[in-house]
Write a structure and sequence with these properties.
With 266 residues, this protein is an alpha/beta fold. It is built from 9 helices and 10 strands. Helix content is 32%, strand content 15%. β9, α7 and β10 form a beta-alpha-beta unit. The structure holds 2-amino-2-deoxy-6-O-phosphono-alpha-D-glucopyranose (GLP).
C-alpha cells in the first residue's frame, strides 16, 4: 500500500482530487466509487470547486456508492443515496441516471444485491474507489468478521458503528438502522485503484491495524494489503500509532515526481 501522510493535511483532498481529475481527463467515461461519511467531504468540496472553475466535468462519468441503510424511506435525508447527492453529485454535472446506490428498500434483497454487482460489471468496473474507514476497521459496511471474499449483501451493523453513526440521527442510537446493503470486500478489491482517507485520532488504532497488522477478517480494511494499487491518505492524528510512519513519510517525500498516485487505466 502507498501510505501518504502529507505535512499539511489540507493536501489530502487535493491529492485525491488530482487522481480523480487525471483519470477523467484520460477517460471521461470513468467509473468512480463514492463513499459516504465525513472523511471524503473535503475531497467532494475540492471536486465541486474544480468543477465550478471549469477544470473537470463528470458529464460522461458513472458513479457507484458503497452501501445503503436498510429500512429508511427512500426520501430520508440520511439514506446514503440522498447523502451523496446532497454532499457531492448534485453540485456537479453527473447525468441524473449515472449515480447508483444499492437498493436498500428492495423487497428481494438478494436479487437487489446481485443486480448491483451486475450493474458495476456492465459499467466496466470501478476505476477509482474512494473509501473511508470505520473505527472498528470496516470499509463500506463490511464489519469485523466479513468474508474477505464477500460480495454485495445484507450486513448487520456492529454496535460500535451504530454508536459512531448516531451523530447523523440527532445522537439517537435507536434511530440508526441496524442493517445495510454493502459492497463486499471482494467487490471493493476489484476496483482498479482504491484511495482510503482516514483523519482524526479516532481512526488511529484502526489505521495501525489495517496497514501494519495481519490481513484478517477481524479488521476488514486489512484486505487492502492485497490490493495492487491502494493509496492510504492520513493526517498526523490518524497516523500516530503507525510503527513505520517515518518510512512512509520518507518514501513519499523522495518519490520521483513522475511517479504520481494517478490511475491505472485498465
Ligand atoms: C460509515 C460508512 C463507511 C464510512 C464510515 C466512516 O460506516 N458506511 O463507508 O467509511 O462510516 O465514516 P466517517 O468518515 O464519517 O468517519
Amino acid at each position: 500500500m502507498e501510505v501518504i501522510i502529507p505535512q499539511d493535511s489540507a493536501d489530502i483532498p487535493v491529492i485525491a482530487a488530482d487522481a480523480i481529475c487525471s483519470l477523467i481527463k484520460h477517460k471521461p467515461h470513468a467509473v468512480i466509487g463514492l463513499a459516504t461519511g465525513s472523511s471524503p467531504l473535503p475531497l467532494y468540496a475540492e471536486l465541486i470547486r474544480r468543477y465550478e472553475a471549469g477544470e473537470v466535468s463528470f458529464a460522461e462519468a458513472t458513479a457507484f456508492t458503497l452501501d445503503e441503510y436498510v429500512g429508511l424511506p427512500s426520501d430520508h435525508s440520511q439514506a446514503y443515496a440522498n447523502v451523496i447527492r446532497q454532499e457531492f453529485t448534485a453540485h456537479v454535472d453527473f447525468a441524473d441516471d449515472a449515480v447508483h446506490s444499492p437498493h436498500g428498500a428492495a423487497r428481494d434483497i438478494p436479487a437487489a444485491c446481485r443486480e448491483y454487482e451486475a450493474l458495476i460489471n456492465q459499467a466496466g468496473g470501478v476505476d477509482i474507489q474512494i473509501l473511508g474507514l470505520g473505527t472498528d476497521g470496516h470499509i463500506a459496511f463490511n464489519e469485523p468478521g466479513s468474508s474477505l471474499g464477500s460480495r454485495t449483501r445484507l450486513k448487520t451493523l456492529a454496535p460500535r458503528t451504530l454508536e459512531d453513526n448516531a451523530r447523523f440521527f440527532d445522537g439517537d442510537i435507536t434511530r440508526v438502522p441496524t442493517q445495510a446493503l454493502t459492497q463486499g470486500l471482494a467487490t471493493i478489491m476489484e476496483a482498479r485503484h482504491v484511495i482510503l482517507i482516514a483523519t482524526g485520532p479516532g481512526k488511529a488504532h484502526a489505521v495501525q491495524q489495517f496497514v501494519e497488522g495481519p490481513v484478517s477478517a477481524a479488521c476488514p480494511a486489512s484486505v487492502l494489503q492485497y490490493h495492487p494499487h491502494a493509496t492510504v491518505l492520513l493526517d498526523e492524528a490518524a497516523a500516530r500509532l503507525l510503527v513505520h510512519s517515518d518510512y512512509y513519510r520518507y518514501a513519499y517525500a523522495t518519490k520521483p515526481g513522475w511517479q504520481g498516485i494517478g490511475p491505472q487505466l485498465g
